[in-house]
């Protein structure tokens, strides 16, 4: 596979698609070309941010991981493992079970390394020191298996941001404190990814923790994470100014973002003469979401996120609040009353009116938890809207009374 190439495959047989794209990319030759050995330590890094099944659009389909493992094992590679560290607030092990990885990996005889329990060390990432887990750093060949999806803080997440699962939890919190774009842009300069296979089967194009899956029936492969993410921008109708970490990564020497220099090859699933599934080159670009459809899908979330005052919040915290607000709004709750509600590490030790999470414990009204539980958050906010409504009415009627007297 060439440096500036992207191979896209459309279909419904997910495991076969993953296997075929590895074959089309010449993955075996790439590994032997870099490592010259069938004993090379090959590590696969999916996205298992939390216990959310892949059908919800947030995590990597286990069928993709199985397709890649099957290809590698048939090619003769034996030193394989899968690693991941879920986001702050969820246990990787829960994600492993709910997402169906536990039984699949046992069946295939491939070990799993929980990066939430791994050691880490400081690595120079193009001038920025970042603490990275030891396991992914020890790979001879690192295969990144991200999901192309929306993100409440960075608008989009794919190959570059998926590497954030390879840093320890305190470092994840620090990323949020210093602003996500800069460290995400730098991270891949210190943790090289050799091959990327993006899950774009049914990802949630609005939010990283899923719930609004959109059928896309697509997987694509690249060797350059910057080019891969620039391609995602195009697919998601986003402007590069909305996702600045792609340019930052390019400036750090991670890859190239110029899509006009990319060679995109598209394959489509079909039936061969023998009735078996086959994949053929196609010129036609299968139908995808239009710009206006995309804007329509994200509009509601952008609207409710405008109610929130967020400073350095963790994804797990903010990523729960915005969908909860959207749900409440859909249920007819007057979420407008919550305008100005605060969330994030920037409010630690400060006072205020309404706050979410233990970072806002000094506020008049604050929901405890780090991050707070989603169900509790919904109940608390619902009650809060009612109380604020009652207080408004009371203040209104006492105002009327005082005018009358
Ligand atoms: S309470 Fe603060 S530290 Fe905890 S998850 Fe939320 S923003 Fe992060």
The neighbouring-strand order within the major sheet is 4-3-2-7-10-11-1-12-13
How many strand units?
17
Ligands present:
iron/sulfur cluster
Total helices: the number is: 14
**Radius of gyration (Å):** 23 Å
Note poorly predicted spans: none
Helix content, binned percent:
25-40%
Largest sheet report: 9 strands, mixed
CATH T-level topology of the largest domain: Rossmann fold
Share of β-strand residues = 15-25%
First-last Cα distance:
83 Å
Instruction: Determine the structural class based on helices, strands and strand pairing.
Output: alpha/beta
CATH class of the largest domain: Alpha Beta
Average pLDDT over all residues: 90
Q: What is the molecular shape? A: globular
Count of separate structural domains: 2
* CATH-defined architecture of the largest domain: 3-Layer(aba) Sandwich
Pfam families: DUF362
Domain DUF362: 42-233
Protein name: DUF362 domain-containing protein
InterPro entries: DUF362 (IPR007160)
């Amino acid at each position: 596979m060439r440096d500036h190439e992207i191979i896209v495959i459309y279909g419904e047989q997910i495991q076969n698609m993953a296997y075929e794209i590895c074959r089309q990319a010449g993955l075996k030759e790439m590994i032997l070309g870099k490592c010259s050995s069938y004993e090379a330590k090959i590590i696969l890094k999916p996205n298992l941010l939390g216990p959310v099944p892949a059908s919800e659009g947030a995590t990597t389909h286990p069928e993709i991981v199985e397709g890649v493992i099957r290809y590698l094992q048939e090619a003769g590679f034996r030193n394989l493992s899968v690693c991941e560290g879920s986001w702050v607030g969820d246990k990787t092990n829960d994600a492993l079970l709910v997402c169906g990885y536990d039984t699949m990996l046992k069946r295939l005889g491939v070990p799993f390394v929980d990066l939430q329990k791994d050691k880490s060390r400081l690595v120079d990432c193009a001038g920025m020191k970042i603490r990275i887990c030891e396991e992914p750093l020890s790979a001879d060949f690192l295969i990144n298996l991200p999901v192309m999806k929306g993100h409440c803080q960075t608008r989009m997440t794919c190959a570059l941001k998926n590497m954030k699962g390879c840093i320890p939890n305190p470092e994840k919190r620090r990323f949020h404190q210093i602003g996500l774009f800069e460290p995400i842009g730098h991270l891949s300069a210190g943790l090289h990814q050799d091959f990327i296979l993006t899950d774009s089967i049914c990802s949630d194009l609005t939010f990283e923790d899923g719930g609004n899956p959109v059928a896309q029936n697509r997987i694509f492969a690249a060797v350059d994470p910057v080019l891969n993410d620039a391609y995602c921008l195009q697919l998601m109708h986003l402007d590069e100014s909305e996702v600045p970490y792609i340019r930052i990564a390019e400036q750090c020497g991670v890859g190239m973002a110029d899509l006009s220099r990319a060679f995109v090859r598209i394959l489509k699933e079909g039936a061969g003469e023998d009735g078996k599934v086959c994949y053929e080159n196609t010129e036609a670009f299968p139908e995808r979401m239009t710009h206006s459809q995309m804007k329509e899908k994200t509009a509601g979330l952008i609207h409710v996120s405008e109610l929130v005052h967020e400073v350095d919040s963790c994804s797990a915290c903010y990523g729960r609040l915005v969908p909860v607000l959207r749900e409440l709004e859909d249920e007819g709750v007057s979420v407008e009353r919550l305008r100005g509600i605060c969330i994030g590490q920037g409010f630690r030790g400060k006072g205020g009116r309404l706050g979410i999470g233990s970072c806002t414990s000094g506020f008049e009204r604050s929901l405890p938890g780090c991050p707070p539980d989603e169900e509790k958050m919904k109940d608390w906010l619902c009650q809060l809207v009612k109380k604020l409504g009652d207080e408004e009415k009371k203040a209104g009627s006492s105002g009327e009374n005082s005018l009358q007297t």
